[in-house]
Amino acid sequence: MVWIILLSIGLFAGAIGSLVGLGGGVIVVPALLYFGTSTSWLEGINPQTAVGTSLFIMIFTGLSSTLAYLKYKRVDYKSGLIFFAGSGPGSIVGAWFNKDLNMEDFNLYFGFFMIVTAIILMIRDKLKPVNLFRNASYERSFTDPNGETFTYSFPPIVGTAIAFAVGFASGLFGIGGGSLMVPAMILIFLFPPHVAVATSMFMVFLSALVSSGTHIYLGNVKWLYALVLIPGAWSGARIGSFLNTKLESKTLVNILRIILIIMGIRLIYQGIVG
């Protein structure tokens, strides 16, 4: 039963993370904390092991989706490497901050983060892109399958600074970081949405390599659970990246918002009452 649950968590997290560009950690971490603290099914789960195990899974989620998106030529890997220059160091710093958090503090902070994530998902489609960097030094273009060409640009130092904050959140909470990076890429840098999601997953993959390495060094990865989660996450990421090329993800995003708010409120309550 435990293995079926872990496989299902991995599958769902991989599909959601790849489809929406979140990375899947917003599903894996709360699920591990719930089954590790509210049931007797998972042993040895605390904020550090939940985050470390989640980030290790993000390597495979990010790699699987990136390979799939590369096939559709939607990954802007040059921009992704610029973002990684910020998210990589940020994720290491976040991982070190995580080691000093107890369960109550982690639940409280992570609960607020999940609600903020839900709000961002709620308003991002209502906000209009703001072209702040029309004449930025770094410019890219993308032509979609319909022949429409998109041009976008950003100063590398600004992209790196935003990515550092995203990486910090990723290393601290075990999330992929796409919940913050994708809206920034779409609304500030004018990335086409599908390119933003694909490039975000590329950055998630690279950042997860670095941050999970830090958590492995700190002994925060539950290897047995990770090995069961990986096949589900890998398959889910492939499914999500395929659906991203075929479907509008609005319905799924609406469901995800509700789930994030409910889980966020529950974590805040647990953080307050202990």
From TrEMBL:
The keyword Membrane applies. It is a multi-pass membrane protein. The chain crosses the membrane at residues 49-70, 106-123, 154-175, 187-211, 223-243, 255-272. It holds the Pfam family TauE. InterPro entries: TM_pro_TauE-like, TSUP/Inactive_protease-like. Keywords: Cell membrane, Membrane, Transmembrane, Transmembrane helix. It is found in: Cell membrane; Membrane. Belongs to the 4-toluene sulfonate uptake permease (TSUP) (TC 2.A.102) family. This is Probable membrane transporter protein. It comes from Bacillus seohaeanensis.
